[in-house]
Amino acid sequence: MLGLRDGGALVATVMVGDDGHRGWVYYLAVDPARQRGGLGRLMMAAAEDWLRARGCPKLNLMVRGDNTQARGFYARLGYDLNDVVTLAKRLD
Description:
The chain has a single domain (about 1-75), classed as Aminopeptidase (3-Layer(aba) Sandwich), CATH 3.40.630.30. It is built from 2 helices and 4 strands, in the order E-E-E-H-E-H. Helix content is about 25%, strand content about 30%. The protein is α+β, with helices and mostly antiparallel strands. The chain has helices at about 40-55, 70-75, and strands at about 1-5, 10-20, 25-30, 60. Strand 2 (about 10-20) and strand 3 (about 25-30) form a beta hairpin.
């Protein structure tokens, strides 16, 4: 996990990992009071840099289909839709 602090306050985080085949961003969070100020873009750049430093050639992430705000954010950063199916099973 990568984080950004302003003074002592944690204002943005990104959970990023490398599975040996591709990189994944599992979660991106920005303090709601600080959103739309470029911190999400900064954190995604940090995640991409972290993966590049490990020789990772591709980054994947998942966004709910109805989350148009997030989809627009990632589209503006150059992320494209992939034709994949995600399967899930609840365990609770």
